[in-house]
C-alpha cells in the first residue's frame, strides 16, 4: 500500500523505485504520467548467505497489482538478469508489451519460452523515437558488457527524464558501438530535467579499461597454455566470448560450450549476427574426450562458484565430460559479485589442488567492468548538465559517492536526491522532490514457491544451518493432558560438549516436569503444551551450551 502518496498534481511526472536503490540487482523503476505507469527494467537479484534456500529475489509488484490497468508496458535497457530476469514472473499477471533492442528481446524470448509466456515484444533501436501510451520515448546507444544496451529519454510535460541503464565509456568497444555521448549532448541542449544514472562503480577512480585489453591478456594466457584451457565467464558476455573464440581460432584450438545458459545465449547471439563463430570451431562437449586436450578450449559458466554450475562441478571432479588434470589452465573471466567471495575462492582452491594454473581478476587482467568509473560518470554529468540528479543502480555507498560527483560538476545540492527502494520522486515544472513511498519489499522464489518464504522462514533456516534442531516428541492423554509416553528427543546438527553432562536426559526431565505442571493446572491444549515444551528445552540448551537450536515440539494425543 502507499504511504503519504496522494494524487499527482496536474502536469506532474512521478518515478517510483521497486528495486535497484541501496542494493545490487532487482533494477526496476516505474514512471507515472497521466495515470499511466511504465516500467524501466524489471530485474532480479541473487540471494546471499543470509537467505539460505532462496533461488532468486524479485521486486514486490503489489503496488502495481492494486491497479493493474494503469501499467502500459516495460522498457528494457539491456538483457542482463538484474534488469530483465523478473519479467517471466511479472508478465504472468500483467499483459503488457515489452520494448527492447533486438538482442535484448531475443534473449528475453528464450527465457519466456521456458515459462510458456508469449507477450507482445516490440523491437526498438538506438536513435529511434516512439511513443507508448502517454510516454514519448527516445533511445540512445550505451556501451556495456553486453551488446545492444541503451539509455531511454522520456519527454514529459513536467520535463525530460533520462535513464542511462548500465553503461561505460569504452572508446574501442568490440562491436564498434560506443556510448552515444554526442546524441545525449544534443538532448542536453534541449534541457535534461532529471538524470537517473548507473552508480555501480561510483567509488572507483579513473576510467574503466577497454574490453580489448582483456582480449590481449587472454591471448597471452592461451599462448602459454600447455594443455586444455577452461574459461568461465558470464553467459551473457557476448563481447568476451567473441574474444575467446577469436583467440582459440588463431591458435587452432577447438571450442566446446558447456552450460545451458551459455549454449542458449550464444546460439541467440550467433543467429542474430552479434557473435561471429568461425566455421568448424565449435565441437559438442561430448566429443572433448576424443580431442587432444592441448587443442581444446572449454567455455563454461560458473565464474561465481555457483553450486552445480559447470566450473564448480569440474573443480569437484563431478562433471560428466570435463576432468581437470595437472597442467590445465583455468581462467575466471568475470568480476566478483559481493557475497560470492567464499564460493569463488573455494572453487579456485579446488582447481589449484587439482594441479591447474588458475587466472582470475586478482592476478591477471582477465576482466574489466562494464560499468562507468568516476571519470566517466563525471564526464557524463558535465556533458548533460541535468537540472536534477538521482543516482540509481548501487548500494547506498555508491549512490552517496555518485551524488558527490554530481555536486562537484555543478548540480546544486538541493537538486540531488539519494533515494532507496520504495521512494517516489515527483517532477513538476523541472524540479524534482520526494512525494512519498510505495510498497517495495523483496519477494523470494524458492523452487516453485513465489513469495511464500518470509523473514520467519529465513530466520529458522539460518538457525538450522548454524545451530541445528531438536525434535521433542511426547504422547498425552487427550482429556487430561497426562503424559503417557516420552518425552523422546532427537537432535540433528546440534552439538554440545561432553562436560555438559547428559544434556538430553536432563532436557527430557525438564520437559516432563513442565508438562506435569501444566496438566496439574488442567491444561490439555496441544498448542499450549508445545509452547511449554519449547520453552523448557530452549532455556536449558541456552543455559548449558549458549546455543539456540530450533526446537520442534510434537504432541500426539490418544
The share of residues in extended strands comes to 15-25%
Shape call: globular
The biggest beta sheet is recorded as:
8 strands, mixed
Q: Overall pLDDT, averaged? A: 87
Q: Counting H and I runs of at least 4 residues, what is the number of helices?
A: 15
Main β-sheet, spatial strand arrangement:
7-6-5-3-2-1-19-20
How far apart, in Å, are the first and last alpha carbons?
Answer: 47 Å
Query: What is the radius of gyration computed over CA atoms, rounded to a whole number of angstroms?
Result: 28 Å
Number of strands: 25
Helical content (DSSP H or I, runs of 4+): 25-40%
Low-confidence stretches: 461-465
Structural class: alpha/beta
Say what oligomer this is.
Answer: single chain
Can you put this structure into words, describing what you see?
This protein is of the alpha/beta class. Strands 7-6-5-3-2-1-19-20 form an eight-stranded mixed beta sheet. It has a six-stranded mixed beta sheet with strand order 8-9-10-11-12-18. A hairpin with a 2-residue loop joins strand 2 and strand 3. Helix 6 runs parallel beside helix 7, helix 11 packs across helix 12 and helix 14 packs antiparallel against helix 15. The chain is globular, with a radius of gyration of 28 Å. The two termini are 47 Å apart.
